[in-house]
Amino acid sequence: MIGKQAKEMVRNYLAYTFLRAGSDKVLKNTIATRIRDSESRIASVDDYTKMTRASFARVLLDVLDPSLIVNTDKKWIDESGLNKDIMTTLRLRYDFKWRDNFAERYFQPDKNLTIGEALYLIEQLNKSGK
Predict the structure, then answer these.
(1) How many H helices and E strands in the chain?
(2) Over the stretch 29-78, which tens digit does the pLDDT of each residue have?
(3) Rounded to whole angstroms, how far apart are CA atoms 120 and 114?
(4) pTM reported for the whole predicted model
(5) Domain limits at 49?
(6) So what's the pLDDT on residue 69?
(7) CB neighbour list of residue 124: distance below 8 Å, 6 or more residues apart
């Protein structure tokens, strides 16, 4: 998946959450603000750069909830470095894990992201409702 596709997914997800809010004006205002803010946040993503699992998670969390969980807790073997806070936030706040053979032990942040994985990540964050 490339940056342009990632940006479209984020925009579409935000539009979906706006429509799903129904007649809740407070929630719609909150989402409308997120939509406006997201444009400046995702502008730095290059349209033709391949997205990794960590880079897409960073974009998604930056738009949905930029307050990352920072601690020394570690479950995944590769939960360290620049992407540690992203992985910790996904794991603790959203109870996230990939749907593969390595989900219990690895996040694999540098692995190129597929469109299916991006949709799965969005779906899991949406399911958690947080």
Answers:
(1) 5, 0
(2) 998 998 988 888 888 899 999 999 889 998 988 888 777 777 777 776 67
(3) 10
(4) 0.83
(5) 3-128
(6) 75
(7) 94, 96
Instruction: Tell me which DSSP letter residue 2 carries.
Output: B
Could you give the angle at the alpha carbon of 107 between the alpha carbons of 102 and 109, nearest 5°?
A: 135
Distance of CA 96 to the CA centre of its chain: 11
Q: Which residues of 103-120 are buried (b: 16+ CB within 10 A; e: fewer)?
A: eeebbbbebebeeebbee
Number of domains in the chain: 1
Q: Write the single-letter amino acid at 7.
A: K
Residue 49 CB contacts under 8 Å (≥ 6 apart), including other chains = 2, 3
pLDDT of 77: 64
Reading the block at residue 17, the tokens are 């959450």
**C-beta of residue 108 within 8 angstroms of C-beta of residue 86:** no
Report whether pLDDT(2) > 80: yes
| Residue 44, C-beta contacts closer than 8 angstroms, at least 6 positions apart | none
What tokens were used for 74? Answer: 């570690």
